[in-house]
Amino acid sequence: MLGDGKSVILSFDDGPAPVSALESILQTLQENEIKAEFYVLGNEVEQYPEAARMIVRQGHDIQNHSWSHPDLAKAPEQDVRWELEQTQNIIEDATGIVPTKIRPPYGAGGFRGHMDPELVEVASDLSLTIITWDIDTEDWRAPQGLGPEKIQNIETQFTQQQRKILFNILMHVQPATARDLPSFISQLKEWGFIIAEP
Known about the structure:
By secondary structure, the protein is of the alpha/beta class.
């Protein structure tokens, strides 16, 4: 079986808005007793601090995804620093939690062999580990969500990484993903994966 002896971590970018999609995702995770990680945008936490608190209250990890979703690999060091510091501060103000991970928007500057030196330096100054992903669900691409064509692509990505035993799966806080998440979780279990805590 595809997932024999292997584990996955579910991660969601671009939250905590839209809040209705977040609430639905959190509900599904709760029903399945799954803990996930949420890489949130500082400017959205500023608008929806209660949504950020909801993530933490339900026992999920809340992490840094920059303030405004720029390409950090192309940004000068002072901009990278501002994006990450502001987000650290607003998440701590809203939730009392200090993030320990940064996932750069688009993964830009965060992949091995393509690490952006300014991002590496700022992340290190802020004690943030740079995290990317192993499985890109492309849930944002039309048709949005985790429907059959996405599942096929996800299955292919798993088979291309035979040696890995722990996979970070990238999704986004959006209505179509919230809608399809219950069936996607069932599919992962059917493939034999254990859903691990981040």
